[in-house]
Structures are given as C-alpha cells and as structure tokens.
Amino acid sequence: MCKEHLTSEELIELFYKQADGEDFPESSHLQFCEECRLEYDEIGSILRRVKQSPAPALLPDERVEMFDYAWDRSRPHWFQIASWFRKPVWTFGVGVFCGILLTLLSISGALDLVPSAQARPPLQYESHGFTQTISGEFVDSFYPDIENPVIVLERNRDEHNRSHPVLYGTTEGGTIQIVLNL
C-alpha cells in the first residue's frame, strides 16, 4: 500500500503526457500503487470518451456570448478600465463638466497653463547711438557691494573713436549713487 497517492490533476496531466509519448516518474508510481492505477484507468476511459464524442453545435446567441467573453479577456487591462467610456450620456456629461471646469479655472487665473519665464540672462547689452550699456548677473558678480551695477561705454567723437567705460550703481539701499571711471 502507498503512502502518497497521486491527485486527479496529476493523473490527468500524466494521461496527456503519456499520450504524447513522454515518460515521467509518476508513471512508475502506477506500477506499484493499485489504487492510483485504477483511478488512472477510470480517468483515462472518461477522457477517451470525451475526446471521441462530437461537440454539440452552438446556437448563434451562444457563439456571440463566447466571442464577447473571449474578446473581453484578450484586451489589455487599461482598456477594461476605460470601458465606462462606452456609455455615451455619461461620457458626454463628464466631458462637458471637465471642459467647463478647465475653462473657468483658466479664465480666473487659478490654473496657470503657461508659466512665465523669470530667468535673467547673464549679460544684457543695450545700444543707443554712441552709448552701449552692459548689465546682468555677470556684472553683479564682479561688483557684489554695488546694487544694480551697470557699465556704460560712451564713444567719444574724437579722432581715435575710443570708448570710456563708466560704472553706475547705488549703495545703502539706493541712497548713494556711485559713478566710477573704469
């Protein structure tokens, strides 16, 4: 007598494996265990009869139901989540509500769809006739003690056309103005 018997699932699996011509360790168990061999023979006879009997013809409604079931199971998970979009009234109502909500938020300014850029370029050049002005973060880093430093290059109208750089700025919170010839 055997201590461990094969389950029905294992016997069915063994039946189909032996039908394919494969040999497995479970088949040696059948040689020694009378109970498992009898159950294997019963399952084998049932499976042979099922294989030989013709499948009944399906009604058109049953075919449609089987196709719908298989189709639903074959779709990806995200498609099943979005299946509520198939209901046109619900979808239309949600779409109109979301559109009105986004429009109102955008008009009121609560929803900033286009954020403005606050970046300042490292150097800014401005040219007005014979004067050129240079400012920006680069100039600020050279003169950290001066507030709002600006370098102005003025071209003289002499024969050499030389530029004289002048630094303009303030200190003490804008109370003292600084003008330095560089």
Topology:
Blueprint: H1 8-19, H2 25-32, H3 34-52, H4 60-74, H5 77-81, H6 88-108, E1 124-128, E2 131-135, H7 137-142, E3 147-155, E4 163-171, E5 176-181
Antiparallel strand pairs: 1-2, 2-3, 3-4, 4-5
Question: How many strands in all?
Answer: 5
pLDDT under 50 segments (min length 5)? Answer: none
Across the major sheet, the strand order is: 1-2-3-4-5
Tally of helical segments: 7
Helix content: 40-55%
- Beta-strand residue fraction: 15-25%
Report Rg: 44 Å
Note the gap between the termini. 110 Å
Q: Which outline best applies?
A: elongated
Largest sheet: 5 strands, antiparallel
Q: Classify the secondary structure makeup into a structural class.
A: alpha+beta
Which H/E pattern describes the elements?
Answer: HHHHHHEEHEEE
How would you sum up this structure in a few lines?
With 182 residues, this protein is α+β, with helices and mostly antiparallel strands.
Describe this structure in words.
The chain has 182 residues and is of the alpha+beta class. 47% of the residues lie in helices and 19% in strands. Strands 1-2-3-4-5 form a five-stranded antiparallel beta sheet. It is elongated, with a radius of gyration of 44 Å. The mean pLDDT is 79.
